[in-house]
Design goal:
The protein is 32% helix and 30% strand. The protein is of the alpha/beta class. Helix 2 links the parallel strand 1 and strand 2.
């Protein structure tokens, strides 16, 4: 509940869709989407090798959506960048949000986070 409340506090209020990847990102994305009654998008790390061979599962965002990308911990920005690559052609991305930040990197979109590795070690 504290993580949910914290993420909602830092997140753009106009978000219509939450996107996540991997165990940490997907679980946080699902919790936020469910709590706020928003669309939920799961992005695969690699495209499926069968069917439509897509990167996106669940809701497919469109030009009307404002997407928040979430993750549990960000170290190098790799997961955020993979999600950006999959979602950016489809919808507007409003920002990237993480529970914890433990590395220095740059993203195309604003990054907000609840805590850093250094804060946890204090």
């Amino acid at each position: 509940k504290k993580i949910l409340d914290g993420m909602l506090h830092i997140m753009d209020p106009d978000v219509t869709c939450i996107a996540g990847m991997g165990y940490g990102g997907i679980s946080i994305a699902m919790i936020i989407a469910h709590d706020q009654k928003l669309f939920y998008t799961a992005v695969r790390e690699e495209p499926k090798t069968h069917g439509k061979q897509g990167m996106i599962e669940g809701y497919i965002p469109n030009a009307h959506d404002k997407v928040a990308i979430v993750d549990d911990v960000c170290t190098s920005g790799t997961s955020f960048n993979k999600i950006i690559s999959a979602v950016e052609p489809l919808a507007q991305i409003v920002g990237c949000y993480a529970v914890g930040k433990r590395g220095e990197f740059e993203l195309k979109y604003p990054l907000k986070y609840l805590t850093t590795a250094e804060d946890l070690l204090r």
